[in-house]
Amino acid sequence: MAHAFIRRLLGPRILPPKKAIDLPSIILFNKPYHVLSQFSDRDATAATPRATIADYLSAPAHRVAGRLDYDSEGLLILTDDGVLQQRIANPKHKMWKTYWVQVEGEIGDAGIDRLRTGVALKDGHTRPAKAAKLEPDAIWPRDPPVRFRKSVPDSWLELSIREGRNRQVRRMTAAVGYPTLRLIRVAVGPWHLNDLAPGEHRRLEEKSFHV
Q1: Of 65, 37, 62, 64, whose CA–CA distance to 50 is shortest?
Q2: Contact in structure between 29 and 75 (CB atoms under 8 Å)
Q3: pLDDT score of 211 more than 50
Q4: Where are the alpha helices (H) located in the chain, listed in sequence order?
Q5: Going by fewer Cβ within 10 Å, which terminus of the chain is more open, N or C?
């Protein structure tokens, strides 16, 4: 299944029959909170150096396929294949990206339905999404923790989108009345965090396939 999916992403390549070719190298990384989605901090005005991917792994020749905001957590995909990197990162390919979202307030069915059908943002109406309430039992604690207020409840949802607008998930939940407190990306296309802890990475084992 993974081989077929990658072949669809990369498109047709003219090769001799029955020749083994290397699959792109793919690394899955669980980006912690307040870590940049790049290997160096290019902002010279920052008071102190910010953490980057390089603080957690070494991956020469790999590039990040789709960014994740500094204040968001979760799945980053790195690959050494430029075509695959663009196929994953470019929103025109409409690859599903799934997030676990902690919001301020108890989101109900009406809010979930609005996210599913799409909401109006300043840069246009969002495409229909997948949304459902989520029980947070298996979600790791954040460091530092989200600010807790006894007078204001919170809740979790799972949201999947096929667009790539700037801070889209945060703007969507705010538009339906539930500001985002914490955002974790758990899946991109067929790739999922599974049991990766924050700061851990996994290099995919599949090496080649025949065409």
Answers
A1: 37
A2: yes
A3: no
A4: 2-10, 82-89, 109-117, 168-175
A5: N
The count of structural domains within the chain is 2
Percent of the chain residues past pLDDT 90, beyond the cut: 70
Percent of the chain at pLDDT above 70? 86
Partners of 203 in the β-ladder = 27
Instruction: With cut-offs at 50, 70 and 90, classify the pLDDT of residue 76.
Output: very high
β-strand pairing of 73-79 with 63-64: antiparallel
Is 160 domain-assigned? yes
Domain co-membership, 139 together with 103: yes
CATH of the domain at 140: 3.30.70.1560
Give the closest residue to 133 by CA, choosing from 115, 108, 163, 114: 108
One domain for residues 138 and 207: no
Q: Within a domain: residue 8?
A: no
Considering the entire predicted model, what is its pTM?
A: 0.86
Q: Please name every residue paired with 75 in a beta bridge, in sequence order, or none if there are none.
A: 30
Question: What is the torsional sign of CA 60, 65, 66, 71?
Answer: negative
Residue pair 47/102 in contact (Cβ under 8 Å)? The answer is no
Q: What is the CATH number of the domain that holds 35?
A: 3.30.70.580
Tokens of 155: 């809740």
Judge if 76 and 107 occupy the same domain: no
10 or 40: whose pLDDT is higher? 40
- Which residues, at least 6 apart from 62, have a Cβ–Cβ distance to it below 8 Å? 25, 27, 78, 79, 80
Tokens of 184: 């974790």
**Residue 31, domain extent:** 22-93+193-211
